[in-house]
Amino acid sequence: MGVAPIKMPQLGESVTEGTVDRWLKKEGDYVKRDEPIVEVVTDKVNAEIPSPFEGKLVKIAVPEGTTIPIGVEIAVIELAGADAGLIDAEAPPSPPEAVAAPAAAPGAEAVSAPSVRQRLSPAVRRLAEEHGLDPAQIAGSGEGGRVTRDDVLAFVARREAAPAEPAPLEAPAAAASAPQAAEPGRVAVDGAREELVRLSVMRRSIAEHMTRSLATSPHAWTLQEIDVSGLVSYREAEKEGFRQRHGTTLTYLPFVVQVVCDAIKEFPYLNSSWTDDGIVLKRYINMGIAVAIPDGLIVPVVRDADRLGFTDLAQTINDLADRARNRQLKPDEVAAGTFTLNNTGATGSIASQPIINQPQAAILTTEAIMKRPVVIADGIAVRHMMNMCLSFDHRIIDGMTAGQFLGFIKRRLESWGPASIRL
After folding, report:
1. Exactly one of 219, 246, 384, 394 is catalytic; which is it?
2. In sequence order, what are the beta bridge partners of 3?
3. C-alpha pair distances (Å), 85 with each of 1, 68, 118, 144, 314
4. For the CA atoms of 153, 155, 161, 163, what is the dihedral angle to 10 degrees?
5. More confident of the two residues 353 and 85
6. What CA–CA distance (Å, rounded) separates 151 from 124?
7. Spatial CA neighbour of 29 closest among 37, 21, 41
8. Which alpha helices (DSSP H) does 17-84 contain, by range?
9. Are strands 339-342 and 287-289 parallel, antiparallel or unpaired?
10. Helix (H) or strand (E) holding 224
11. How far apart are CA 295 and CA 212, in angstroms?
């Protein structure tokens, strides 16, 4: 009877590593094919990974809380049933060094598989040498984990900005009497007035991704206000009938997504990525929809959003959002996004400066719809107004293009009517 390894899967575009958050099975348990075996967390997704084989879990190679590169063995299954004939010989045991050390402290750079890190352009290799860096220490944001010039510069910037180790403020005897952890995961740092809460795997991953995004892309942002009174009136009149006909809630998002897709086709650089070799224009629109969950934010992707009719788009957005909140997304449902839309208005926000979801070129927020007095011709009227905020990578997009992109969306939404819906 043979054995087969289970490896850390690819969990999204540009993701080079994952963290084992929780084992759902223990050594000795019998596992069916496609039965969830482990929860894995990255900055993009918290997913249950199904077993590709049926049999007994004979080895857990990676403990909970450990961050490892994609492709590293995390467990071994002793094959049974129909899978028993898939592998004739026992797979050789993984060497101990195949498992990475536990997740590093915030700000530390994870070391990925050497084969990934060796794919460097001459310019990037020369830049690393100039700064005395080992490229294997740098987390790559390029395709397949490739280290780019911006990754090197971001690493250098973080290294130079790192604060020096502070000198001790108290004598050893005083330090020895410092408060100890009150309970696992919580450390009292100032008696009853303060405590240190241990970071979750997802929160640590999000922090790393956001820090890297700001260090990688020169962010700029712009805002325009939009009169959406016509759209508000239509949705209010149609939302109950839509729910009865299609069994799903009618939100503003599918209206906005259709308009944004049209704008992207007019301004394709908003749907691109920066690389050392040039700007990659995406001829497809995979719309990321940011969804808040209790311990962070997750961005499921509506693939080929521009090709979906309105009803399918509304149902797809609601389905992905519901499954995101219930942690039921599959890894490929958070991968390959080309543009991100975030409905920050759901929290009452009226203006925001979002951080780009790497390696995308831009992210757009829809803010809260508020009734405000507006000057129309020579009179004043109360209208439903909404701000839209765009953060963009200034290497790819200039302010004029960003303004034209938002202006296109503004005109379409302000002139919106039922005939604008693509069924």
Report:
1. 394
2. 78
3. 8, 30, 36, 32, 45
4. -170
5. 353
6. 9
7. 37
8. none
9. parallel
10. strand 219-227
11. 20
Fold of 219-420: Chloramphenicol Acetyltransferase (3.30.559)
Distances (CA, A) of 104 to 14, 19, 67, 183, 310: 19, 11, 8, 22, 45
Task: Please compute the mean of the pLDDT values over residues 372-392 and round it to a whole number.
Answer: 95
Helix (H, G, I), strand (E, B) or coil at 98: helix
The terminus-to-terminus CA distance of the chain in angstroms comes to 55
The CA distance from 336 to 287, in Å, is: 9
Looking at the domain 3-98, which fold is it? OB fold (Dihydrolipoamide Acetyltransferase, E2P) (2.40.50)
268 φ, ψ (degrees, to nearest 5): -65, -20
Q: Are strands 219-227 and 379-393 parallel, antiparallel or unpaired?
A: antiparallel
Is 304 a catalytic site residue? Answer: no
Cα dihedral across residues 364, 368, 370, 373: positive or negative:
negative
At 221, the amino acid letter reads W
Q: What does the alpha-carbon distance between residue 270 and residue 321 come to, in Å, rounded to a whole number?
A: 24
296-298/301-302 β-pairing? unpaired
Confidence of residue 120 (pLDDT cuts 50, 70, 90): low
Q: For residue 54, give the nearest of 73, 24, 30 by alpha carbon.
A: 30
Q: How far from chain centre, in Å, is Cα 55? A: 33
Q: Is 394 considered catalytic here?
A: yes
Could you read off the pLDDT of 10-62 as tens digits, one per residue? Answer: 766 556 778 888 899 999 999 998 888 998 887 667 778 888 889 999 999 99
Total number of residues shown for the chain: 423
Amino acid residing at 262: D
What pLDDT digit, counting tens, does each position of 170-199 carry?
A: 444 444 444 444 454 445 566 678 888 877
* Overall pTM surpassing 0.85 (yes/no): no
pLDDT at 196: 82
> How much of the chain, in percent, has pLDDT values that exceed 90?
47
What is the identity of the amino acid at 341?
Answer: L
Q: What is the pLDDT of residue 163?
A: 58
For the chain, the domains span: 3-98, 104-161+202-216, 219-420
| Matching CATH number, 104-161+202-216, of 4.10.320.10, 3.30.420.40, 2.60.40.10, 3.40.50.2300 | 4.10.320.10
pLDDT at position 80 over 60: yes
Residue in the block written with tokens 């750079």? 109
- Kindly report the CA angle at 46 between 103 and 328, in degrees rounded to 5? 165
